[in-house]
Amino acid sequence: MQRDKTEPIQVQCPKCRYTMIIYIPLEAMPRCPECNTSMVIKELLDEGKST
Ligand SMILES: [Zn+2]
């Protein structure tokens, strides 16, 4: 486990469901290239287990 490395996460546009992969913490949360809506995290390794 290398904690200093960047991790890929999948983000999704809540409006048109466009998905893309970004690398944290290198990249900030992007806007959807299709409709310019702020994208949300779809898959994150450390969260979402108790939801
Ligand atoms: Zn969109």
Secondary-structure map:
Layout: E1 7-12, E2 19-24, E3 40-43
Antiparallel strand pairs: 1-2, 1-3
Bound molecules: zinc ion (ZN).
Residues 13, 15-16, 18, 32, 34-35, 37 line the site of zinc ion (ZN).
Describe the structure.
The chain has 51 residues and is an all-beta fold. It has one domain. The chain is built from no helices and 3 strands. Strands 2-1-3 form a 3-stranded antiparallel sheet, with no helix packed on it. Strand 1 and strand 2 form a beta hairpin. The mean pLDDT is 84. Bound molecules: zinc ion.
Task: Using the CA coordinates, give the radius of gyration.
Answer: 12 Å
The helix/strand class is: mainly beta
Strand order of the largest sheet: 2-1-3
Mean pLDDT figure: 84
- The total tally of domains equals 1
Could you name the key traits of this structure?
51 residues, mainly beta, 3-stranded antiparallel β-sheet, 31% strand, elongated, binds zinc ion
